[in-house]
Amino acid sequence: MNQPYLHPAQQINQDSAPKETLYVTGLNDKIRLEDLKFVLYILFSQFGEVLQIVMKKTQKLRGQAFIVFQNITYATNAKSALSGMMVYEKPLIIEFAYKKSVIFDRMEGKFYYKQKQQKELQPNIPTDLIKERKQKKIEDKLNNNTVFNQGEVNNVLLIESLPSFVTENMLSELFRQYPGYSLIKLINARGLAFVEYQNDDQATVALKGLSNFKITPECQLKVKYAKK
What we know:
The chain is an alpha+beta fold. The chain has two domains: 8-118, 2-Layer Sandwich (Alpha-Beta Plaits), CATH 3.30.70; 126-225, RRM (RNA recognition motif) domain (Alpha-Beta Plaits, 2-Layer Sandwich), CATH 3.30.70. Helix content is 31%, strand content 22%. It contains seven helices and twelve strands. It has helices spanning 33-44, 72-82, 100-105, 117-121, 127-143, 168-175, 200-210; strands at 21-25, 50-54, 65-69, 86-87, 90-91, 93-96, 156-160, 181-187, 192-197, 214-216, 219-220, 222-225. The strands form four sheets. It has a four-stranded antiparallel sheet with strand order 2-3-1-6, covered by helices on one side. Strands 8-9-7-12 form a four-stranded antiparallel sheet, covered by helices on one side. The chain is elongated.
């Protein structure tokens, strides 16, 4: 006789010992799965290497994610810093997974960030764009020794050379982490975005925090002040 299905929430114990795997609930299930994965990767990878993100579209598993870090320290730091953070207008509820093997056995398929990066996290990326990224990676190394002109200080930031898969929602969730965020305008055809803050100081904090931030292992944000 088959064992009854256990909802993942029943497999999590708030007092469970720290593990490499975090169980995240409360996600806005009205947002595209690809956008959620992207934002979660950006948020959680700030604390260490993310090896795996597991999410499903099924009714029983919607609004949930399992984040697997390289080690327990990374997972612990991420849990402490991100618990309660608003993502797509809902607070993150984060616990340590109770039994990682049981959880993954009950998931029909897994998402491996490293193995399926192109397919899952960055859908529909054309081959020529991948080649461009490799070239940009070489150029970035050459430019590391040069001083980047960030322009005249003001409350509007300009983000350049954005990959085509990036959406306005993705960028919004990233930049709204900083106080004073007002709005964002993405010009996808040109790979540009403008982000407005309430004042110059708030824009400067965001610029310093997100300049050269890796939105993927091969793509860094190029942020500077927009021309007035």
